[in-house]
Recover the amino acids of this structure.
């Protein structure tokens, strides 16, 4: 049984330099992929609008695990 069934989607958009000051693992990963996979999140990435359009439907669809979309 899922611990937090209502938590299906997390989208993080932030100022990386500002947030890094408060994150213990800030310099341990070049991106959030390793962290997300360690936490059993589905990891998606989009570096531009074309890539976002490619992952958009997967990002908003139902999932049996949380999804993190890194931009």
């Amino acid at each position: 049984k899922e611990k937090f069934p209502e938590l299906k989607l997390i989208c993080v958009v932030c100022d990386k330099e500002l947030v890094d000051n408060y994150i213990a693992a800030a310099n341990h990963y070049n991106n959030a992929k390793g962290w997300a996979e360690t936490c059993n999140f589905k990891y998606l990435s989009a570096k531009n609008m074309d890539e976002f359009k490619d992952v958009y439907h997967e990002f908003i669809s139902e999932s049996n695990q949380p999804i993190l979309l890194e931009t």
Notes: Strands lie at 9-11, 42-45, 67-70. Residues 49-60 form the longest helix (12 residues). DSSP finds three helices and three strands in the chain. The helical segments are 16-20, 33-38, 49-60.
